[in-house]
Amino acid sequence: LLVESGGGLVQAGGSLRLSCTTSGRTSINYPVAWFRQAPGKEREFVAGIRWIGGITTYAESVKGRFTISRDNAKNTVYLQMNTLNPEDTAVYYCAADQKGGPFGYPDRNSARYDYWGQGTQVTVSS
Asked: Among 35, 91, 94, 111, which is disulfide-ready with 119 (CB 3.0 to 4.6 Å)?
């Protein structure tokens, strides 16, 4: 259902923008979040956004550097990542909480999410 793109290799201090959209005509009118998983580590919450009003929430480790946004007309959620450092290296996943509905607030618990993308690799070199 969800397809991520935009990952790649970047030097420390650089930027990348990830995109998450649907593979078909399904509308993402519920909370969407980005998670990431580094080798040997658990999957962690990065950022989330509500459908109505675009209310956002961030992990402390990315606050001020990453920005999540959505273009409802394009059915796409973005993650703008600035000032990247090697600790940001991970596979990044977008996830949708269909049960949350349009007014649902993005949950930081990955178990809440029904749909996941395949992931996109982000590698930050020092």
From this structure: 91
